[in-house]
Automatic annotation (TrEMBL):
It comes from Rhodosalinus halophilus. The chain crosses the membrane at residues 101-122. InterPro entries: C-type_cytochrome_biogenesis, CcmH/CycL/Ccl2/NrfF_N, CcmH/CycL/NrfF/Ccl2_sf. This is Cytochrome c-type biogenesis protein. Keywords: Cytochrome c-type biogenesis, Heme, Iron, Membrane, Metal-binding, Signal, Transmembrane, Transmembrane helix. It holds the Pfam family CcmH. One of its GO terms (cellular component) is plasma membrane. Belongs to the CcmH/CycL/Ccl2/NrfF family.
Length: 150
């Protein structure tokens, strides 16, 4: 019984989101379609490729990719068509061009700024005078005695 449940769970998992009726007859074109689909983001599922997603929109996108390939488009033309239609968000690995440079450089820049701030903080702490252990002055002792007596 446990084996049956395991088999059913594996069959129901999104490992094989591409349906048999989507598969192209030409194995070369199908391989190209799978490679392109692995790099395109499902617009419904967060951070999941259309090749892995069971969403209806992902199915439509997979069919669109296959239609474009059958029509004779190159891989780059298919990806460009999807980007024109859905925007650069459709790419799982965004291009490092234009305004995306800000996003690509923001992480390393923030790391460098944080390292600089940490270095300046540690340098300041190393140069700080250690607390003096002189004790209380005569005025401080007199004031303390007065406060304690009250």
């Amino acid at each position: 019984m446990r084996r049956l449940i395991l088999i059913l769970a594996l069959l129901a998992s999104p490992l094989a989101a591409v349906q048999p009726d989507e598969v192209l007859d030409d194995p070369v074109l199908e391989e190209r379609a799978r490679e392109i689909s692995e790099g395109l983001r499902c617009m419904v599922c967060r951070n999941e490729s259309i090749d892995e997603s069971n969403a209806p929109l992902a199915r439509d996108m997979r069919l669109m990719v296959r239609e474009r390939l059958v029509a004779g488009d190159s891989d780059e033309e298919v990806v460009q068509y999807v980007v024109e239609r859905y925007g650069e968000y459709a790419l799982l690995n965004p291009r490092a061009t234009g305004a995306n440079w800000i996003l690509w450089l923001a992480g390393p820049a923030m790391l460098l700024v944080a390292a600089l701030i940490a270095g300046l903080y540690l340098r300041g702490r190393a140069r700080a005078k250690p607390p003096s252990d002189d004790g209380l002055s005569a005025d401080e002792e007199a004031r303390l005695k007065a406060l304690l007596e009250d």
